[in-house]
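input
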Amino acid sequence: MAERSVITIATSKKIFVDMACNLAMSFLLWNDTASIKFFLVTDCPQFIPLKLKDKIDVVSIAPGSLGEGFSTKLHMDKFAYTRQTMFIDADCLVYQNLAAAFNTFEGHAVSVIGYKRYAGKDIGFCKDIATVMANTGISYFPLLCGSVYYFEKGQLVTDIFNYARSLLKLYHKIGLVSLRNKENEEPLIAIAMAQFNQQPVNDTGLIKADRMFYEFLDTNVIEGKARLWNKEKIPVPEYSELKLATPAIVHFNAYYAELYEYGSEVMRLKQVFLANKSVAMANIYAGALSVIPGKLKKSTKNLFRPLYQAVFGYRKIKLLKRM
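output
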C-alpha cells in the first residue's frame, strides 16, 4: 500500500468540486496512484465525473461536518490515511511528479512552505504579529500561504490540529483578521506549528508557487511546464521576493482561477483526460477558445482602462464566483 497521499477538500458548492476534479486530473497526469494515493473529500460526490471517480479515492462526508469556509482545512488531519500526507488546495494544479516534494518535507510532523516572522503589522492575517505571539505564547510566527500543507501520521499531528481547532473560538481575541468575513485557517495552523516547534520549509519556487506572488506566468499542464517570474515589481514582497519559480504545484488563488490562465489549463485537462484527445489537439482547442480570446480581452482592457475610468469612474469590485 502507498505510504504517501494527496488530499483535497471540496464542500458545499459544485464550483469547488469542479476545481478539485481539475486538481485530481492534473495529479493523475504526472503521478502513479500506486505510489501516491489521491483522496478527494467532499459532501457533493455527485459532481465528480465517473471516469475520474474510478481513478481516485472519494471520501464522502455529511454536509457541514467539517464546518464551513476556510476552517474546513482545520480538519485535514482526520484524513491522514498514509504515513505522509500532502494537502493541496482545490484551486491548484499539479505539473510534475510529487515525489521530490514529499522528500523535501519528510521528517516534519507538520510543515508548510514559508518562513519565520517575529514582527509585522497587517500581515499573515495578524493585526500585529508581535501581539499575536504575546497573546499565544509562541516565540515565532510561521508566515505561510496555505495552499499546500504537509503532515505525517501520528499523535503529534493530532495534538497540533486539536490545538489549532481550539483557537478558532479565540480568533479575534488573539488579534487575527478575517478573510471574506470568515476565520482563516492559515494563522491558526501557523500558531499551532510554533506552539509545537514545527518548522516551515524555505520557499525555493520548486514545490509550489502562488500566482499572486508573481507578475508573469507561462504554464501548460499537459506538457508539465510551469514558470512564474518577476522582473522589477515584486507583487507581495512580505511573502516572497523570488524572481523565478518552476514549481510542481501552481496555486491559482482568488480571482486568478477565473482568468484564462486557469481556464485554458482546465480545457487542456478535460480534452486529454475526459475527451481522450491528443496533447496537440488539446493545445489547439485551448489556444483557440481560451488563450487567444483571453489575451485579447486582457490587452484591450489595459488599453482602454484609463479612458473608461476618466469617463465613467471606477467600476464596482465583482464578487468571485466561488463566494
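quick obs: The helical segments are 14-30, 50-53, 99-105, 129-136, 155-166, 185-195, 260-274, 279-312.
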